[in-house]
Write a structure and sequence with these properties.
The chain is of the alpha+beta class. Helices cover 16% and strands 28% of the residues. The protein folds into 2 domains: 108 residues, SH3 type barrels (Roll); 138 residues, Fumarylacetoacetate hydrolase, domain 2, CATH 3.90.850. The chain contains 5 helices and 13 strands. The strands form 4 sheets. A 5-stranded antiparallel β-sheet has the order 4-3-2-1-5, with no helix packed on it. It has a 4-stranded mixed β-sheet with strand order 8-13-12-11. Strand 2 and strand 3 form a beta hairpin. It is elongated, with a radius of gyration of 22 Å. 22% of the residues are buried.
Length: 258
Amino acid sequence: MKLDATHDPALNSWVEPANEPGCDFPIQNLPFGIFKRKGASESPRGGVAIGDQILDLAALGIKTGPTLNGIAAMGRPAWKRLRAQLSKSLSAKKFSKKFSRYLLPMKQAQLFLPLDIGDYTDFFAGIHHATNMGKMLRPDNPLLPNYKWVPIGYHGRGSSIVVSGTQVVRPRGQTKPPDKVEPAYGPSRRLDYEAELGFVVGPGNRLGKPIAIRDALNHVFGVVLLNDWSARDIQAWEYQPLGPFLSKNSQARCRRGS
């Protein structure tokens, strides 16, 4: 992957808040999302964050509908062209009059889950993560031998991914403390959370056809932050021999991306 002119640190935008030091969304970072005006009877649609504003993709004649799946499926060449078009439109002052009417202050926007997520896989990010997690469930043997040889992950419940700000519901399930003969059913008492990095896959592959490592990033549409919730007491009882089940069905809350 190579940087191009859209990543130029000297590039500025006519949307002035995007030029302020420490801005999360300068012109070099234009993450996509789905939004609508708060309280308005209108359909959610695609936009990009710029400064403290959201630019409606309708400014470029793009209609996404309620998800970004269509754009994600286009592939990297199309993404690069769209990014270049957005960068040019938001940097050249001659476009300010034309596009300013498509801007909406973020504080006036309601955000939605940006994609229709069919499936997701959760991986350990590194050896320290794997060891710390192992200590919760296997204090005497936290790091299993296969960790250093294969990716360690599990398929999660895609429908549990929700937009940031959604209320967390404490899950219920079976737990079995070491000093009890039988498990009991009830609300989790060890609800845990993890800050995670999510990669959004755009174009997929046909069933049975692998993707070469050198081509992997060509399938990555974007990156998001996730807040992953887990019921550790339920997980400790249910995870053997098949792995996480109800303990990981709570929520993964999707936040800003790029």
